[in-house]
Amino acid sequence: MLNLPKRTFSRVVDETSRQIIFLFVVAVLLPGSQYASFIRPLKQLTMKVLNFYKLVVCVGCCLLFQLLYFGNSRLVAQWEPLYRVYLRDKLGSVGHIHPDQYLSPEALKRRQRYHVPLNDQDVPVSKAYLDSLSRLGLKIVCTSRWLNTVVVSGMDSVKQERVEKLSFVKQIAQVADTSHRSNWQRLRKFYVGSAGLRGQITGLWPQITLNQGNFLHENGYLGEGMRIAVIDAGFDQATECISLHELFAGDRLLGTRDFVYPGVGVFTASFHGTAVLSIMAASASDSLVGVAPMASYLLLRSG
After folding, report:
1. CA distance between the termini of the chain
2. CATH architecture designation of domain 195-301
3. Among candidate residues 260, 259, 262, 82, the one with its CA nearest the CA of residue 160
4. What SS3 state is found at 85?
């Protein structure tokens, strides 16, 4: 009776409404002997209308889900393909002669204290190489002195061919796309709860004793004066964690940096880093205590 797939929503509703009203009026005016013959098509038409509305609701729910999913992911709209450029050497870099230009005074003191000599991995990536890549129209996202690599954006087939011909380039590899990682709610084991629940967590999760971290605490080693860098996939909801409240309130968070999407922030991605951080920095005496609750921290997102 109705060719639903070929009609617009408004026309279908209008035509269906007229037919239902017509059948109702005819059914009321007809004698009882012919009443049943009109009820059957009316019932069939009603089922078609219901099925049509079910289809509309299903499609609407799918569209709403996609809107919410991509709307909650703050990384999707900002993502663009990234490429890691592996360099052959560090010619033109500062070298070992002036370590004070690329290592902090605290880092140099730690090396002297533990007798750790400088090596090529400490030397920054060659600025001359970075300038060459920039002149090709590439944007420098970040560098790694350990791997001697550069992550760049703005790459296309033409630029890639030019980069591969540079004498100091060893190889190029595309960086994995992690923009699909959305900011959904995680397991709230470390979050605010009732006093009774927090007491149960203490008894059920005596994590500080698993590796005899309590030995350090009993001898006064709480990490005070130490600087710890946590490198992980992200620190989603770390600022909401009750066990990490003293870390943020006590100004012991020295800084953050997102090496994957600079400028986005380390608190918008994976929850894994938050869980790792809590093992060290947590300071909630009635629920969770880390092995170094008095240390200062740097939070770095690596992917």
Report:
1. 57
2. 3-Layer(aba) Sandwich (3.40)
3. 82
4. strand
- For residue 91, the one-letter residue type is L
Q: How far apart are CA 172 and CA 84, in angstroms?
A: 6
d(CA 255, CA 132): 30
DSSP letter at 254 equals E
Domain ranges of the chain: 4-72, 82-174, 195-301
Place of tokens 């663009």: 80
Strands 227-232 and 296-301: parallel
Task: Tell me how far apart the alpha carbons of residues 267 and 301 are, in angstroms, rounded to a whole number.
Answer: 9
Per-residue pLDDT of the chain (303 residues; tens, 9 = 90+): 444 454 555 665 566 666 666 656 555 555 555 555 555 665 666 666 666 666 767 767 666 656 554 444 444 445 678 899 999 999 988 777 788 888 889 889 989 999 999 888 999 999 999 999 999 999 998 899 999 999 999 999 999 999 999 999 999 999 866 555 444 444 444 444 443 333 333 333 467 777 788 888 889 899 999 999 999 999 998 998 888 999 999 889 999 999 888 877 899 888 899 999 998 998 876 667 888 999 999 999 987
* pTM (global) more than 0.90: no
Distances (CA, A) of 185 to 95, 154, 182: 46, 33, 9
Structure tokens at 292: 């170094």
Cβ atoms of 238 and 277 closer than 8 Å:
yes
